[in-house]
Amino acid sequence: MTHVQPEVPAAIATVPGAVTDRAGARIVALDCYDVRFPTSLQHDGSDAMNPDPDYSAAYAVLRTDAPGLEGHALCFTIGRGNEVMVAAIAALRHHIVGRNVADVSADLGGLSAAMIGDSQLRWLGPEKGVMHMAIGAVVNAAWDLAAKVAGKPVWRLLADLTPEQVVGLVDFRYLDDALTPAEALEILRAAQPGKAARIAELERSGYPAYTTTPGWIGYSDEKLTELSRQAVADGFTQIKLKVGADTADDVRRMTLAREAVGPGIRIAVDANQRWGIAEATAAIAALAPWQPYWVEEPTSPDEILGLAKIRAAIAPAKVAVGEHVANRVIFKQLLQAQAADVLTIDACRVAGVNENLAILLLAAKFGVAVCPHAGGVGLCEMVQHLAMFDFVGVSGPRADRVLEYVDHLHEHFTDPVRVTGGRYLAPSAPGFSATLRQQSLRDYEFPHGAVWQRLPGHFDNPSKAPVTAAPIVQQGQ
Ligand SMILES: [Mg+2]
Fold this sequence. Notes:
alpha/beta; Enolase-like, domain 1; TIM Barrel; 2 domains; ten-stranded mixed sheet; three-stranded antiparallel sheet; 19 helices; about 40% helix; binds magnesium ion
C-alpha cells in the first residue's frame, strides 16, 4: 500500500476557524436516496449517445449526533440504474458509520484507501464503475462534512493545506512511473508563490465558465441559434455543441452556431463516444471549416491509443476526454500516450476528491489543461471546488482553463452555483455545495415523490433511440 499518511494527521480538524465542538461528533448513519428529475421530457441533456436522460442523483447523507451537522454528496446518473448506485453507496456503511467526525476528517486519504482496498467490494471493479463511483460519493460526503466542521468551502479547505498535506491525501499506487510523491510535492510547492493573490482574484472575479446550454442535440435549430446568441450576450466566450448523430446535421448546426456567435467565440463539440476512430477523424474533418476548439469524447474513453491517433489527425483541434475516464490509471496512460489536450475531470466519476487530486497533479506534471465536466445535477456545484483549487494550488496562472456550465436544476440546491458574466463566483458557504433542498428531496425521490406519482410508467420502456442505431432524428421543441 503506497498511500501516504498526512504529515499532520489532525490538520483538517484543527484548521483555524474550526467549530471544535462539532468535531467531537460521531457519524451515526449513511442514508442513501434515489432522486430523479424528468429532464427527458424537454430533451435537456440530450446528446448522440444519451438521447433521453433523466438527470438523477444517488444522494448520500452522512448523519452525525451533532444537531444540524451532516455530510452530503451525490453520484450522478441519467435515470434507470440509479437504484444500483444507491445500493452500492449503502454497501459502504461499515467503513464510516460509528466513526468520529474528527478522525475521519483528519485522514480522508485513509478513508478513501480503506474503501478502495475493501477486497470483497474491489472485486466489483477494480477501481472502476458503480462501486468506484459509490466510493466517490462517500469520500465526497466526508469532505463536505470536514469542510463544514472547518467552516470553509471545500476549495478553500484544500487551498489552506500545505503541499505535504495534499500529497498525503493521494494514493500513488500505479502512478509512480509517471508521478512520484516527490514530484507532486515539487508541483505543489511551485504553486505556493502567488497563491494568496490567486485566492483574492478568485474571490474578486471568479473562474471562467463555458456553456453547453445551447448545444443539446434534441434542440431545434431555432433554439440552438437563440441560445447561442444568448450565451454570448451573457458573457460566455466558449459554447459547446453536441455532435455525432449525423454528420450533415452536425455541419448544419455548427454553421448556425458559428453564424450566431461570430468568429471570436470558441465552439467546442462533444460526440459523447459515438464514433469509431476513422469515423471520428472524418467527421471532425467535416467540421474543420468552422474551427471546433476541442472535440470531446470522439470515441470510447478507454480507447487510449485510438484517442492518440485521433489527436494526431485533427490538430489544431484539440482532444478532450475525462468525464467517463474510470480512474487515475487511465488518466495517466492518456497523458503518457499524448492522447489528450484537455482533461475533463468529473467530481463524481472517480473515487472522490482524493483521486481527483491525483489527476490534477498528473495533468500539471504533463502540462495538460484541466477543464472540468459539469452539468447534470449537482456536478457544477461540486466540481467548481476542484477547478478553483487547481487554479489556486496546483496549476497556477495558466491560460485556457474553463469550467463547464449548464443552466439546469441548480434551484434544488441550498448553495447553488452563481455564474455571472460568464464566470463562476467562488462559493463561500462551508462544504461541497451538494446539499439538496428538503422539498426537492421529497418531490423528486423515486418512486414515491410527488413528481413521480404523476408520471407512472415513465421508466418502463427502453429508450426509443438506442445508442447503436443509425442517426437520431432531431426532435424539435
Ligand atoms: Mg461531455
